[in-house]
Design brief:
2 copies of one chain form a homodimer. With about 350 residues, chain A is an alpha+beta fold. The first copy, chain A, has a 7-stranded mixed sheet with strand order 8-10-7-11-9-12-13, with helices on both faces. The longest helix of chain A has 17 residues. Chains A and B meet through α1, β2, β3, β4 and β5 of A and α1, β2, β3, β4 and β5 of B. β2 of chain A pairs antiparallel with β3 of chain B, so a sheet runs across the interface.
Amino acid sequence: VSGGTAPISKLGEFALIERARTLLGNESDPRVLVGIGDDTAALQPTQGKILLVTCDTQVEGTHFRRDRMSAHDLGRRAAAVNLSDIASMGGAPTFALVSLSLPPDFPLSDFDDLFRGIGDQFRAFSAKVVGGNLASTAGGLVLDITLLGEVAPNQILTRSGARPGDRICVTGSLGASAAGLRAIERFGEAAETFFPELVRAHRLPSPRVLEGQEIARSGIATAMIDVSDGLAADLLHLCDASRVGAVVHMERVPVCRELLPAAERLGESPEILALSGGEDYELLFTARAGPETDETLRQIADACGVALTIIGETVPKEEGTWIVHPDGRRTPLTAQGWNHFR
Amino acid sequence: VSGGTAPISKLGEFALIERARTLLGNESDPRVLVGIGDDTAALQPTQGKILLVTCDTQVEGTHFRRDRMSAHDLGRRAAAVNLSDIASMGGAPTFALVSLSLPPDFPLSDFDDLFRGIGDQFRAFSAKVVGGNLASTAGGLVLDITLLGEVAPNQILTRSGARPGDRICVTGSLGASAAGLRAIERFGEAAETFFPELVRAHRLPSPRVLEGQEIARSGIATAMIDVSDGLAADLLHLCDASRVGAVVHMERVPVCRELLPAAERLGESPEILALSGGEDYELLFTARAGPETDETLRQIADACGVALTIIGETVPKEEGTWIVHPDGRRTPLTAQGWNHFR
């Protein structure tokens, strides 16, 4: 399979579907009764599991620019965003549909790279593309991925299970993706030289799929959400759904090594980046307080090779939502999350 | 809920999601553990059933024009196209995700009508919207719907089960949607006065959901597909997948009352419209030959109130695919289906 600079309009719809099928390189799977190429995929679900379904759209000009993100990275990123949603319920990803609206002059080589990126990311977490749709558009590229997953009924985590007095925990570090995006906007290609970790966090987020399943399996967690709109906004979503308040200790919020120097060079507040930057795709969860939880968090962190940090605790709803700063000051926690329509 | 001419950008993403949830008016359902408003829907599947998943995209400028189709019709149509795909496997539709990319100046009243249309169409077949995605776009509207369904393992029908000597059958009539579209293009608003049935077939296709389940349950059918690309193209898909040939008798292909006068006024061939028009969303299926099949077809037609017509028979693959014309002439059956990229 070799693309070159030819446009996709050189091939017909069915040839492109065949090409995508080859690029995705699915091995045969007894759970897939009907896969790519038919109108409808037919799948054998695992008996006794709850079915998870999510979708997420990447729109050219809104979520990405083709001159700033390679087709391979775009494919990986779109898959990662969906994987993160399944991870946030403690689920295991299973099957995906890829719906792609493309301008007729879209280069065939980018089409190939896009599907390679999608396939690479899903394969890393044992998920398979089993269908989708290709359409032509006079507008920009729109990539909509639907991902299915499974979770045992006694392990599913939602946003609504937190109780006052729970620990608030987060995987990995925060603010890196937003700082990476701002660095790319400011420094262009050079951003990667200055701040490789931040640029990578933006272009290729690591969905916490295994971590989410370990957290769900451990039994210590009471609620979970993934950080897509920003720590503050997503914690408020969790608090709303659980009807609790929260206190977050700013100095405990984990940030990566490159964030402070990058924030300084960009003239941005590292605290705001960490609290409200968004697109971190880390997991934010609450867990019962107690020594058992501390020990379990250590075990999961060791097993997955990722930091798990307690950043605060939930409180009764009437006590509100607060940030405690290093100097002891408390300020209200407010959402500065993404709002695509304002 | 009242929309008016205000643009959707007056509301934020979360307010629009709440609005969509209200417009869809879902009743509570014990199978929906987590529904609209969360990142991921969590569903209780029916034990022992096969899971069906399909998606279809309606792109402004490619599949519809906003000045020629109301938002309500667009919503209904997008839902209908997906319902037809689930019907083609003999499945019962269950749950849907709606992914919508919208320009910020999209009128709120159209947003409301779009979701009302989606809700109305799905409700008619007991399917529920349980999630989705809203995104902003600088391009035109892109509506991508993913629909889940279920079917018993011994009832699923695919494209690949036909054997030589089977009867080729079709529900309803063919060519009306394509004729309706051409009438709208030619006569504008007046098309509805001249050819109400054709315009309706184009704007509001009737997915054959109950018919599909009855055909699957009856045990007489060997393969099934829905007619979206046109009878000829979709029959060739079925023949390819089943490794059979086919003979179709042109005079038996069912067309609606308005097709002949419309074709004459439009200067189009009614045969070509019926064979290759596309977007009929009828079911095309093969059934074992024999008196039992004839009797069962009559029963299903009576029960569903829709015509079921035998239009030909499958033959060994090496005999090819043919149309027999009323004068006895045979011409090769060729696909004239839609190809969105050429």
